[in-house]
Task: inverse folding
């Protein structure tokens, strides 16, 4: 059976469950059980340029920022109750909300906030007053409130045992590296206690575990890849009548699969390297010119992804179509030959071995680049991220980068920082004040071919019918502060033995 559009599945599977549960009022209590395909080995620094969906969501649940961004990309207050800027938008003053506390009960102060922001952005002058924080930059930052909503600007503090704590809606109760995280509700959260008592996150779950848990009615939310959606989603059509109906949530494609280069020079025969680094950069450009994004999105991923000639998706910016996306193997061969003449070019190329979609894309890209007489030596790495890929020996890696914000400028700024784009480009993004200037900043980010976008894919979540008021943010991820649970789950399950 061919894969039908996931959005159609999501709509059809959710209508029946929504109607059946209509009229029930929200209530407090319960434990939400989430299966995440990602893993984290430490909570320390999880908010610093998070590389995975799980890292981003832990940052959202555990920590607050000065601001937050809605689905329209507009900033509103979080730890800051209001803000204003000078006419040049170079100096911004944020009034700090009273009543916010860290998980140990200590107050969140302007000094705490200033110290966190200054650590992330030392190029800004940060001043803390009694109940306000002032940010001063050398040039205009029109979208500073949106930038300050990014996870890397999380407000944190160390407790007496030097463990990190935040002021978010939840706090860490139990943490087992790469296995399980248990979060408990913050009863004193300044924005109101969440409905859920606990969130239990199982990391790195397999398709087998997800299928077993679904049939035993154990999981509430499972994060799926596109190929897993075929197995889990279509399995709903053959469920026994005794099992409840199934749902899937599928937002617009926002996550980016991209090639990220870690070394400037390819591996070529001794004595045959070009004389200048500019010549070597042509290899990266040649690779970019061979990638058939349309074939990858339409055929390989069965129209469940969008070709990505740019870093940000069309639905967010409105200008992605202006980037060239058609492969040009003739120009690619010319660039490759100009760079290294007749020498063989062989480049170690890593992908996440636990992500079947990443493996399929990597193998197709490797086939594409052969058109330019370039060999990509593909190999898999477990739980591969930008951080871990640098230790694999790969010179280029295929990385899945979740979209950090519904704000164009903030999302671009975040991607540039995670991919290691230079400060000159990020400064240009900081000062962007219009779609035209954002477009120019994104062109600058792509001009070095340090990062080569391939496709945008959606995040896919299987939802148990007991999960109520689930909404997916525009940029993907979870929004669990308003989620509540209907009914009871079985108290025990053979799944505990199988694990």
Result:
């Amino acid at each position: 059976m061919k894969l039908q559009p996931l959005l159609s599945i999501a709509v059809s599977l959710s209508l029946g469950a929504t109607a059946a549960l209509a009229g029930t009022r929200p209530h407090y209590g319960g434990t939400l059980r989430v299966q995440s395909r990602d893993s984290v080995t430490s909570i320390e620094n999880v908010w610093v340029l998070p590389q995975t969906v799980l890292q981003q969501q832990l940052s959202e649940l555990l920590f607050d920022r000065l601001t937050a961004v809605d689905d329209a990309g507009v900033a509103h207050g979080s730890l800051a109750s209001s803000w204003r800027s000078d006419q040049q938008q170079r100096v911004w003053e944020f009034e700090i909300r009273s009543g916010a506390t860290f998980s140990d009960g200590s107050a969140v102060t302007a000094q705490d906030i200033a110290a966190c922001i200054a650590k992330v952005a030392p190029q800004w002058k940060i001043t803390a007053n009694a109940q306000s924080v002032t940010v001063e930059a050398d040039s205009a930052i029109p979208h500073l409130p949106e930038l300050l909503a990014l996870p890397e600007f999380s407000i944190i503090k160390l407790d007496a045992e030097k463990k990190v704590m935040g002021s978010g809606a939840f706090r860490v109760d139990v943490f087992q590296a790469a296995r399980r995280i248990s979060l408990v509700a913050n009863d004193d959260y300044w924005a109101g206690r969440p409905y859920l008592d606990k969130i239990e996150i199982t990391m790195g779950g397999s398709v087998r575990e997800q299928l077993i848990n679904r049939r035993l009615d154990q999981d509430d939310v499972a994060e799926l890849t596109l190929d897993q959606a075929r197995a889990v989603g279509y399995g709903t059509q053959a469920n026994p009548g005794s099992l409840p109906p199934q749902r899937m949530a599928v937002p617009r494609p926002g996550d980016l699969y991209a090639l990220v280069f870690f070394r400037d020079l390819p591996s070529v025969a001794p004595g045959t390297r070009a004389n200048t680094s500019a010549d070597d950069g042509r290899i990266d450009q040649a690779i970019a010119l061979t990638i058939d994004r349309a074939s990858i999105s339409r055929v390989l991923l069965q129209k469940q992804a969008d070709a990505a000639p740019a870093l940000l998706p069309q639905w967010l910016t409105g200008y992605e179509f202006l980037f060239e996306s058609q492969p040009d193997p003739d120009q690619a061969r010319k660039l490759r030959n100009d760079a290294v003449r007749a020498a063989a070019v062989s480049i170690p190329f890593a992908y996440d071995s636990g992500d079947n979609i990443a493996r399929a894309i990597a193998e197709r890209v490797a086939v594409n680049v052969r058109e330019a007489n370039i060999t990509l030596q593909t190999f898999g790495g477990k739980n591969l991220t930008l951080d871990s890929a640098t230790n694999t020996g790969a010179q280029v890696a295929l990385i899945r980068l979740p979209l950090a914000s519904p704000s164009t400028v903030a999302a671009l700024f975040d991607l540039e920082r995670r991919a290691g784009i230079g400060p000159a480009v990020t400064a240009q993004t900081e000062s962007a004040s219009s779609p035209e200037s954002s477009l120019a900043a994104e062109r600058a980010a792509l001009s070095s071919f340090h990062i080569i976008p391939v496709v945008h894919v959606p995040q896919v979540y299987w939802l148990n019918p007991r999960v109520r008021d689930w909404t997916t943010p525009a940029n993907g991820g979870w929004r669990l502060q308003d989620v509540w649970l209907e009914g009871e789950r079985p108290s025990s399950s053979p799944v505990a033995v199988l694990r």
